[in-house]
DNA sequence: ATATATACTGAACATCTGTACAGTAATCAA
DNA sequence: TTGATTACTGTACAGATGTTCAGTATATAT
């Protein structure tokens, strides 16, 4: 943190703790009693210092009107730092290597996506292994050639979709497997969504 | 939601919006003016109804003292629903199929993990493709046979690690590539961490 | 040596805020 | 019909809260 005094850091830390643990912003008097100050003005001085240093902003005359700079608040929720080229000697956590953040949760809208655990190795040549999680965007159809969740007679499988001549071909990506041809007029079939991501826990 | 009237739902929705978008709890008068009420007591009635129905709790005599029941607040942050067997006819979103939640962000502690974008196809046979994100737990060493980030002369690569006879063998998983043998007494070498997950955005 | 920033105390003030009480009107169940 | 619930208006009040001003003391920089 940039140029904070020990006391200012303590107070800022307390603000972060309140937000993280109780999800509320304390009043100046609450902060005051927490630190044992005898005047709320002591807190005010610190808050104004924190504001000047850009860590918070204050809404005038508004109770609990402290807004924590999102850069610091979401420190933990930014996602995983994406590290680029690693220079010799520098620790990997060095910020210079930062290319961005991999925000896994933000990547996929929970209301439109779900995860499906893959069983079997029919898609290994597409880099989808047994036990992988397919991240699926729920949609009723996909374009030819896309990988999708196909639901045949209530059984969900991940395959490449190829509609042709009124049939639906479920094309595996494994030389030892053959495509499955489905006649939608005979067999109960629907698309469960498009596979938009893969996640594997090693 | 359980037994909420339309108005109560509007107000509760407003509370959630404030928390989600501005990260603060409004005062009763702020809610009042938002809805165009002419008395803060109108809000109070609704808040007490919401409290009775268990959606919020109120801290007495405390400004902005509304706490939203975490069950509703974190509704969106549960992660992706993991869907299991899909029964014929049932929509995939049916809760009966729920096996759990894939909480990607919670899976990895941001302070100990980082993501590294894979370049090249030296690990395709391990199911790691060009462009994949390796999720790496920062640690100074790994066991033999584990996949890790190897940093050789400042260049980071993902390989299977095999220490042998004082040398470190960086073993690719691609029949067209050969292992690289590193002499740590000559070449600058260190482990950047263990690969604990793979994520691919299609 | 002087000025500036930090880290408070202490008292007072205006207003923000939750609360209380008294109503009105509409809806709905017993 | 009666009573309860919902959905407000309107007034008033006590206390919570941000703010201001006047100080004190210490450390740090110029």
How does this model look, in words?
The structure is a homodimer of 202-residue chains. About 6% of the residues of chain A have low confidence. Chain A has three domains: 69 residues, Winged helix-like DNA-binding domain superfamily/Winged helix DNA-binding domain (Arc Repressor Mutant, subunit A, Orthogonal Bundle), CATH 1.10.10; 29 residues, no CATH class; 87 residues, Umud Fragment, subunit A (Ribbon). Chain A has a seven-stranded antiparallel sheet, with no helix packed on it. Chain A has a two-stranded antiparallel ribbon with strand order 1-2. Chain A starts with 5 loop residues before the first helix and ends with a strand. In chain A, strand 9 and strand 10 form a beta hairpin. With 202 residues, chain A is an alpha+beta fold. In chain A, 23% of the residues lie in helices and 31% in strands. Chain A is built from five helices and eleven strands. In chain A, helix 1 packs across helix 3 and helix 2 packs across helix 3. At the A-B interface, strand 3, helix 5, strand 5, strand 7 and strand 11 of A face strand 3, helix 5, strand 5 and strand 11 of B. Chain A binds a DNA duplex (30 and 30 nucleotides) through helix 3.
